[in-house]
Amino acid sequence: MADTSKEIEQLRVKLARLEKGQKLLRDKTDLEARVQRIEIDTEKEIREIERKKNEPPELSVNSPTSGTEWKINQPVDINWSSSGLLGKWVRIDLLKRDRLYREIAVTVSMEDGSFSWMPPATLPPADDYSIRLIDHLTGLTGISDKIKISR
Fold this sequence. Notes:
Blueprint: H1 2-53, E1 58-63, E2 69-71, E3 76-83, E4 89-96, E5 99-109, E6 114-117, E7 126-135, E8 141-143, E9 147-150
Parallel strand pairs: 2-9
Antiparallel strand pairs: 1-3, 3-6, 4-5, 4-7, 7-8, 7-9
């Protein structure tokens, strides 16, 4: 009987080692799959950076456009497009007579391509405003045509 109990205990130990080995094998397989996905994603990012390096950098304000009129305290959208190797962030300024009047937003994701804003009541009505975007990395700018802000 003692020999049988000893054999059973030895088999249990072997079984536990085997189960632990199988778990380690599953963990290893999962890790290998994750590493492969990361390598594929990294290769895609490298190809995208190489593609962007070959494009001239560009930052354009798509909206507002010439003749746009914004109303004080009414929400508006500022839209832009970008290409080439630019940073991740853009600053949005309100210009008046081609000079900085106020910062609208300091750090907006370049990829968003859009920002909602509400012209405050403190802005004087005028037709010589424009929007300027500045890429944080390169300093590249995009400036809209003149727009009107009214009450």
